[in-house]
Design a protein that fits this description.
By secondary structure, the protein is of the alpha+beta class. It contains seven helices and 14 strands. The radius of gyration is 21 Å and the shape is elongated.
């Protein structure tokens, strides 16, 4: 039996984890772990998160036998009680990990690399205002179509490209596994070299690449697509000193921020509906009491 365990969450977005092959354990430890797995009741894969779970720890667990695998992603509030002793055992053995620490792919999951890949690590320095960070080293994301999204050294990031009203639902922009996605999204929303639709789709894919679960990543995609930065590019052509010139003018068209009622309705909707990412651009979620 092989077990991969990852624990994330909290303001600093730290990740701890471990990989255990029971064949390498002492007999007593192997017996204890196998008993905990059996008593956990984890026989089917699932992904489950409580509403407004910003302060909850997130657990990712993969249990591999010779012929099958169980994959579980959940938070403190959604962890089944019988599985808590197993998670406690693994938590004691978890050590700090980098953002490249990855869970094994289940047979039903996308192939490794299906969500692209990150180049480098996010190395940044907090500015004196306590909100902005300046990248010390270059960082990049290569999306599934092999398009490169750069975040150059010296770029300033602060998570502002993710509507603040959703932070209480999805967490702050530098928490846990969507920190990498938040960085490249911030930069792309600042440079505005590509369409806002492509930038927000990239954010979803980068979230999935970073290990964010499908439900949370899709909720975040809805948030940025419908309430995040938008822009329109106008090319003004003129003749200067007998030579044609093109001036690129960017018009900001960012929509108003969502209300508390809209955020609550969106959170409830994604808790109870399976939504494919392709539906997000045309999906409209009514607020409580509104006509569907």
């Amino acid at each position: 039996m092989r077990i991969t365990f990852m624990l994330s969450g909290g303001f600093v977005g730290s990740i701890r984890g471990c990989r255990i092959d029971t064949a390498t354990l002492a007999a007593a430890d192997r017996g204890e772990l196998e008993q905990l797995v059996e008593a956990s009741g984890l026989t089917e894969s699932f992904e489950r998160f409580a509403p407004a779970g910003r302060d909850h720890r997130q657990y990712d667990l993969a249990i591999e036998w010779a012929a099958r695998m169980v994959r579980v992603s959940c938070d403190d509030a959604s962890l089944p009680d019988p599985a808590r002793p197993l998670v406690g055992f693994l938590t004691k053995r978890a050590v700090p990990q980098s953002l490249t620490f990855a869970m094994p792919e289940s047979p039903a999951a996308p192939a490794a690399g299906a969500w692209g890949r990150f180049l480098g690590d996010v190395v940044a320095k907090w500015q004196s205002d306590g909100r902005d960070m300046t990248l010390v080293e270059p960082f990049a994301y290569i999306d599934p179509r092999e398009v490169r999204w750069d975040a150059a050294a010296g770029a300033v990031v602060n998570g502002a490209s993710i509507p603040r009203a959703f932070w209480s639902v999805i967490g702050g922009p530098f928490e846990g596994r969507f920190r990498n996605a938040s960085v490249v999204h911030d930069v792309a929303c600042e440079t505005r070299d590509r369409s806002w639709q492509d930038v927000h789709r990239m954010f979803f894919e980068a979230c999935r690449c970073g290990g964010v679960g499908a439900v949370k990543a899709t909720t975040m995609y809805y948030a940025v697509f419908h309430f995040g930065p938008r822009w329109r590019v106008e090319e003004r052509r003129s003749i200067v000193a007998g030579r044609p010139e093109v001036e690129r003018v960017v018009h900001d068209e960012t929509p108003p921020p969502p209300t508390a009622a809209e955020v609550a309705a969106i959170d409830r909707y994604f808790e109870s509906h399976a939504v494919d990412a392709a539906e997000i651009p045309t999906l409209r979620i009514p607020t409580a009491g509104a006509a569907p």
